[in-house]
Every structure is written in structure tokens, then in C-alpha cells.
Amino acid sequence: MSARPAPFASGLERRVALVTGALGLLGKEHCRALSRSGVRVVAGDLDGRATRAFASALEAETGVPALGAALDVTDTLSITAVEAATRAGFGPIDILVNNAGINDRVEDPTSGGFPFEGYPLEAWDRVMRVNVTGTFLCCQIVGTGMVRSGRGSIINIASTYGLVAPRPTLYQGSDGQPRFFKSPAYPTSKGAVLAFTRYLAAQWGPTGVRVNALVPGGVENGQRPSFRSRYSEHTPLGRMARPDDYHGALLFLASDASSYMTGAHLVVDGGWTAW
Known about the structure:
Layout: E1 16-20, H1 25-36, E2 40-45, H2 48-62, E3 66-70, H3 76-89, E4 95-98, H4 121-149, E5 152-157, H5 185-204, E6 209-216, H6 225-232, H7 247-254, E7 265-268
Parallel strand pairs: 1-2, 1-4, 2-3, 4-5, 5-6, 6-7
Helix pairs in contact: 1-2, 1-7, 3-4, 4-5
């Protein structure tokens, strides 16, 4: 199968990228965008067998070498092992996409069941451990190698809910009663990711390592038609994002096209935060 052309490729050929949370909806798209631009991708996620199968399919599609690896972003030994395997297979990591995260999703009826008054501490701790500590650990372990190399681009995946609060009315049914509760942990964790991005950019600016955040809006993924319609009403573009709407932004942050950009957050949300 021939590869589809990437939105653009600015000298990314033969660079090496590690994408965490690679089996998620956007994780797979991040891997595709990079691979189609000639980047050798290491797809990391908890299920090692599934990541290896995905990487094999990605390589077959694009003709660019790819690897899959079992990766737990909360485990330093796991991250260190994947970093070492990547270095042995492809060389030093040039691009780190911190995409792994826990997000309670309206399309998943088993999540979002607790109003704030009864939100469990263990749920809060779990989200913070993955979304914040996981990003910290991957930056610390993989980014240290970038500092030694004197170059690198780290892209932390945040959310519009790191900038603005979730709208409770978005999750109400036709009777005005809540059908879903967005957790307090998710927006708090994504706000922390943005603050951490600024901190690390300031620390590592002189080393040649850039650290930025991609701030995506809501992605269409099997939600109820009423939810999609209500969400779309709050965006100037009048729709939710498609999964591949973030390809261009990701490649921009990964490439030398953004060489004078660090400590910033690139908002790609259809205008959700403009109102």
C-alpha cells in the first residue's frame, strides 16, 4: 500500500521519535503522521504485542522502519528499557511525544460517573500518576539523552481543558440532568502539563532541546449525535475534530519549522477556546 502524503515534511526524514500512548485514537494518528514524513517511530503502550502489531502495519504502509514496545510511563525501568531499545535499534531519540494519558470519555458509559463531591481519591491519584508523573518521567529519562545530544523536540499533549473548564451543560441530557461528569483530575492534570512544559522549556532552552505542548480539542469518536451537535455549536468551525486534524500541528512542532518555538502551547481546537 502506498503511503499518503504528509501535510508537510521539514527535514524529518530518518529522525527517531518515541510516541507514548501509541495505541490510543490520537496516538495512532501521531505515529502515522510522523512515519509518513520519514520518521522512524517507536510506538509505546502497555500492550507490547499490540504495539508490535501496529508498528508492523505502520511500516508496511509507509515503508519506513517502525518498532513497537511495551511501555508503562509510570515505571522508570520500563521507560529506561524502551529508551535503550530505541537507541540500539534506531539511534538517539530526536522527538518525544508524550501522548499517554487517562481521559474519562463521554462515549464510554463506564467513565465519568462521579460528581466532584464524591470523586474518589484513588481515581484522582491514578490520573495524576499517568498524566503528570508519566510525562515528567518520560521527559526526565528520554530528555536527558536529548540534552547530551544537544538537540531534540518534546511535544507534550495537553487539552483545551487545561486552558478552560469543562462545560457542565455539554454533558446534560435533554431533561437538563447530568448524564456524565467530567472528572476534576483530567483538566487539573492537563493544566499541570502546560505549566511543566513552560518550566522545562526554560530549563533546557540553552541545551538545544525544545519543549512545547499541543492542545487539541474534542475528537469525534462515536459520541452520541446530540453530544456532537452540542459540542459543535461551541466551535466557530462548527464541528468536532477528525482524528487526523492534528497531523500538521504535530509535524510543525516536531520539525525545524518550529525551531524558534519553545515553552509554548499550540491550540488546535476549531476555535473552542476563542469564545
